Amino acid sequence: MATMIHDSDVDLSPILGRRVAVMGYGSQGHAHALNLKDSGADVRVGVRPGSRGWQAAEAAGFTPLDPAAAAAWADVIMLLVPDLVQPGLFKDAIEPHLTPGKMLMFAHGFAIRFGWITPPDGVDVSMVAPKAPGHRVREVFKEGAGVPGLVAIHKDATGTARAATLAYAKAIGCTRAGVIETTFSEETETDLFGEQAVLCGGVSALVTAGFETLVEAGYQPEIAYFECLHELKLIVDLMYRGGLNFMRYSVSDTAEHGDYTGGPRLVTDETRQMMRQMLAEIRSGAYADKLARETKNGWFAGERERLRDHQIEQVGARLRARMPFLEPAAKPESEPALRS
């Protein structure tokens, strides 16, 4: 069983004695920078001048630097821009200033795992990957708690990489909940698989297909929305608190029976074989190549646009507007082509 490392196991001083540059001020970037600052770290934000991230960092009390200046100033550089942006930013702004003894950090192992970035000799390379979106990393930290995380050491050139990496994890709150040591490969491959097969691809497709099946059969779209999307949070919350068994204990006998009988009819041997194929594509690098290709040729952006006006989105927006207790949210009308 994996060993969980907690606050009491970690000395914070190895990160407090260093200058930390957080590259990017998006979802993860803002959380890391603010949590580090609150923990007493000497932190600067590296971001493109005049960008939305630059303005947000200034509004939060930082004096942002352009990425090259931030990299030159820092001892520790945490790269929190989108995977596809990282190689160019690394080559242009970071690598020229990545002198021996510095530490290059990631919150996702993608660029290292697939060889998109090759750090120079003499540099520590590590990862702290919070297992939550950035806004939750920040919210939970402010509440005095933390989200769990993964840590990995890809290269320990100085002999101090592990201590500094764990200290970084403590400074952003992850060791409050506990961190597990892993490798760049394991984190990257399991993360991509989880996103595609379950958390995003699997769930989104299942919710949409269920909604469409009910609507096509003549049921009201609003009822289909409640049944296939709205109530999903209630079930996931039960799983989150107590696992699958607690969820099954908490729902009705009819719902529990439906779990045992319906699930195997949907997740068949064919589904499992497709999951294995998806995992094989991730591990071979074929998915990384596909991501780069379909971002460059516009397919990725086109799918984003195509799906934003699906009936389930229109119905959901109307219903959520009548439920202010949900604190309804909506994606911006305009957004960057790539997000971290």
Q: How big is the Rg? A: 22 Å
Instruction: Report the helical percentage.
Output: 55-70%
Q: What's the tally of helices?
A: 18
Strand content: 5-15%
Mean pLDDT equals: 95
Strand order of the largest sheet: 2-1-3-4-5-6-7
Uncertain parts:
none
Question: From the helix content, strand content and strand pairing, which structural class follows?
Answer: alpha/beta
Note the main sheet: 7 strands, mixed
The quaternary structure here is: single chain
Helix and strand sequence? HEHEHHEHEHEHEHHEHHHHHHHHH
Q: Distance N terminus to C terminus?
A: 31 Å
Per DSSP E runs of 2 or more residues, the count of β-strands stands at 7
Shape: globular
Textual characterization of the structure:
The protein is of the alpha/beta class and 340 residues long. Helix content is 56%, strand content 10%. A seven-stranded mixed β-sheet has the order 2-1-3-4-5-6-7, sandwiched between helices. Helix 2 runs parallel beside helix 7, helix 4 packs across helix 5 and helix 10 runs antiparallel to helix 15. The longest helix is centred in the last third of the chain and has 19 residues. The relative contact order is 0.10. The mean pLDDT is 95.
Defining traits:
340 residues; alpha/beta; 18 helices; 56% helix
Note the topology.
Blueprint: H1 13-16, E1 19-23, H2 27-38, E2 42-46, H3 52-59, H4 67-73, E3 76-79, H5 86-94, E4 103-106, H6 110-113, E5 124-130, H7 134-142, E6 149-155, H8 161-171, H9 174-177, E7 179-181, H10 184-199, H11 201-216, H12 221-230, H13 232-250, H14 253-266, H15 269-284, H16 286-296, H17 299-308, H18 311-321
Parallel strand pairs: 1-2, 1-3, 3-4, 4-5, 6-7
Antiparallel strand pairs: 5-6
Helix pairs in contact: 2-7, 4-5, 10-11, 10-15, 11-12, 12-18
